Amino acid sequence: MKNAIHTALAGLLVLCFAAAPAPAPAQATTALDGIAAVVDEDVILRSELDRAVQNIIAQYANQPGQLPPRDVLERQVLDRLVLMRLQLARASDTGIRISDAELGQAIESVASRNRMTQDQLRQRLAADGIGYEEFRSSLREEMLIERLRQRYIQSRVQVSETEVDQLLAQRAIGGPEVRLANIVVALPDGATPEQVATAQRKIEGIRDVVNRGELDFSAAAIRYSDAQNALDGGDIGWRGYDAIPPAFVGLIQGMKPGDISQPIRGPNGYQLIKLVETREAGQQTLTEYNAQGLMVRVTPTVPVEVARQKIQALRDRIVAGEDFATIARAESDDSISRASGGDMGWFAINAWGTAIGNQVQMLADGELSQPFQSEVGWHIVRRIASRTQDVTEKNRRNQAREIIGQRKAEEEFERFLRQLRSEAYVESRLEAPAAPAASS
């Protein structure tokens, strides 16, 4: 269950709520806690780093051989903590806030995704040794960082139809997909020849370690990669060839599942790419429905039972032969469909909400539903027709738009994070680990 919660929080619990120090008396903290890193005018305490590292160790309890030595793991985790601390500070400086209501909704979502009530989630956290207030604080911080990202890229990332057309003309969007993993040895901007040579030796040494079978690719990524996905074993996930930088497409197309590339020099350093597996994409279809709807809204002056009785009376009139559209124009509280006589147009199953979607899906064409309740009131719907649409081309354009937007967003935010890191004063109190030696 702990792993399920980790997944639901998309990496939040990986750091075991270490982005902010746990409350402790100031004198005790000074006496017992060391400093792992200085970040501008703030510090990351040794206890914060220890909690985060212990959480990673717990995650890999069944695969302890996947983890690097303690000092290497500490460096990986500390890098994440530093970046989180810098992002949280920037979010605060720019006035980004997460309200208690938003936080409550997020907690409910986490509980729902793990098929729990909030009380069960609280109990599970306690059983795993995680304080509920720590959980709330860390979730709020994760939301702050995501909102900072959204705000930063919102005004900087625009995708034109011309860009979509150009990408579709250049690449086969919607074709086969590949699952990739990578290991990155980063280089600073303006790297010196000596730094480049050192990075090249390190990436070659990592590849030799993997090829000799001393570590598998995932373990090597955890141990040596400088990328943000290092603690995920270097996993990049599924990508279409259209979502891969053009310089790498030919290389990956020539690989088989399990193959690992030669070291590749990119704008941010050297990397190894592993082709994990492949899959084919097929034709994409979507079932759409056409229906008429009528709603009686529940309000302080129209309680639930009164609304139910009214919708039942309206249904009785329709069954008796009165025109659905005429009644909808006169009686429906749905301001969107009322003027068109309740016509809801063609829509995907849950476009009007799950309550309506569930009813429409159960009806036959021409059939009128019984009264049913949603979160806003009581309804009846008549399903007119259904159709299956080939949405492959539409999805190709949407996918192309998302690919371009995601790539631009990643580039922009990565640039922002590098600038944030370069402008900050960061002093690590940890020793750097040694790189693997390349075989001669």
From TrEMBL:
<dbReference type="InterPro" id="IPR023034">
    <property type="entry name" value="PPIase_SurA"/>
</dbReference>
<keyword id="KW-0697">Rotamase</keyword>
<dbReference type="InterPro" id="IPR050280">
    <property type="entry name" value="OMP_Chaperone_SurA"/>
</dbReference>
<keyword id="KW-0677">Repeat</keyword>
<dbReference type="GO" id="GO:0030288">
    <property type="term" value="C:outer membrane-bounded periplasmic space"/>
</dbReference>
<dbReference type="GO" id="GO:0043165">
    <property type="term" value="P:Gram-negative-bacterium-type cell outer membrane assembly"/>
</dbReference>
<feature type="signal peptide">
    <location>
        <begin position="1"/>
        <end position="26"/>
    </location>
</feature>
<dbReference type="InterPro" id="IPR046357">
    <property type="entry name" value="PPIase_dom_sf"/>
</dbReference>
<dbReference type="GO" id="GO:0050821">
    <property type="term" value="P:protein stabilization"/>
</dbReference>
<keyword id="KW-0413">Isomerase</keyword>
<dbReference type="GO" id="GO:0051082">
    <property type="term" value="F:unfolded protein binding"/>
</dbReference>
<comment type="function">
    <text>Chaperone involved in the correct folding and assembly of outer membrane proteins. Recognizes specific patterns of aromatic residues and the orientation of their side chains, which are found more frequently in integral outer membrane proteins. May act in both early periplasmic and late outer membrane-associated steps of protein maturation.</text>
</comment>
<dbReference type="Pfam" id="PF00639">
    <property type="entry name" value="Rotamase"/>
</dbReference>
<dbReference type="GO" id="GO:0042277">
    <property type="term" value="F:peptide binding"/>
</dbReference>
<feature type="domain" description="PpiC">
    <location>
        <begin position="286"/>
        <end position="385"/>
    </location>
</feature>
<keyword id="KW-0574">Periplasm</keyword>
<dbReference type="InterPro" id="IPR015391">
    <property type="entry name" value="SurA_N"/>
</dbReference>
<dbReference type="Pfam" id="PF09312">
    <property type="entry name" value="SurA_N"/>
</dbReference>
<dbReference type="InterPro" id="IPR000297">
    <property type="entry name" value="PPIase_PpiC"/>
</dbReference>
<dbReference type="GO" id="GO:0003755">
    <property type="term" value="F:peptidyl-prolyl cis-trans isomerase activity"/>
</dbReference>
<keyword id="KW-0732">Signal</keyword>
<feature type="domain" description="PpiC">
    <location>
        <begin position="175"/>
        <end position="277"/>
    </location>
</feature>
<protein>
    <recommendedName>
        <fullName>Chaperone SurA</fullName>
        <ecNumber>5.2.1.8</ecNumber>
    </recommendedName>
</protein>
<dbReference type="GO" id="GO:0006457">
    <property type="term" value="P:protein folding"/>
</dbReference>
<dbReference type="InterPro" id="IPR027304">
    <property type="entry name" value="Trigger_fact/SurA_dom_sf"/>
</dbReference>
<keyword id="KW-0143">Chaperone</keyword>
